[in-house]
Amino acid sequence: MSNQLDNPGRRDVMRKAGAMAFAATGVVAAVTPAVAATSSAAGALGARLQGVQHFGLTVQNMDRAFEFYTQVLGGTEIMRDGDFQGDVIHNTLLLTEELDARQRHVNPRAVGIPDLRSGAQRLDVRFVQFDNVVIELLQYRDSNQPQGKGDSFAPPTEKTSPAFPRSMHICFYIRDDVDFNQFVHDLEAESAKRGMTQVKANRVVHAASEQERLNAPLNTNTNRITSGKSDGWTLIYAKGPEGEQLEFVQVRGQAKRVFDGAKDARRQLVAAQ
Length: 273
What we know:
Blueprint: H1 8-25, H2 33-39, E1 55-58, H3 62-72, E2 76-84, H4 87-103, E3 121-129, E4 134-142, E5 170-173, H5 180-193, E6 200-201, H6 210-215, E7 223-224, E8 233-239, E9 245-251, H7 253-272
Parallel strand pairs: 1-4, 5-9
Antiparallel strand pairs: 2-3, 3-4, 6-8, 7-8, 8-9
């Protein structure tokens, strides 16, 4: 059966799910009536937004990614849907990519553009809730592949360096009372137990081999900044099970005061509009 977003019932379900997801994020304070009125009127674009609703990640293996973000990192499933196909959803997601391919006289399929229009490929999605953000997992698969465990439509990109323009990452906030170095160790260990050997975190020292990376002292698992404007910011970059770029941070001291002050200023600005 064709799953298209022009179905009124589907639109209502997705709208309600999105509203629940955003309400749970706590990213921005509740929208006041004044802001609600501004959001529907002409004016500054920023005044019409309610903040970030979710981050999306296209995955190679839906079940593996879902297991990592729920069972390893502790997110909670909001909803799942799938088998999206048809002209409306194809145009909604892929029209400009398809036009660009045709202008370059390239077969859209050759550059990773699935054919949702005819239903040859399908899109499945799952939403995962964390304390202050929602992550959407997406998988494009051939129509003869089962949902979840089926193979992806296209291979993953080989260019995984975060230095590439257009690269994105997901950043997770670690509680202040958590031993960050131990967290990184346990993240890799728990993932390895599940066969997710792709989950690897960087070290703050040079390693000439994978074994040297693994053998690095525990206190090299994180970079703790103790001076300058970022004083109090602790971080490490890691790869997730899909090769996606992840970041884990703790924010204390000077950095925390800066971010908390910016959040308070933002709330006052929104309330005044």
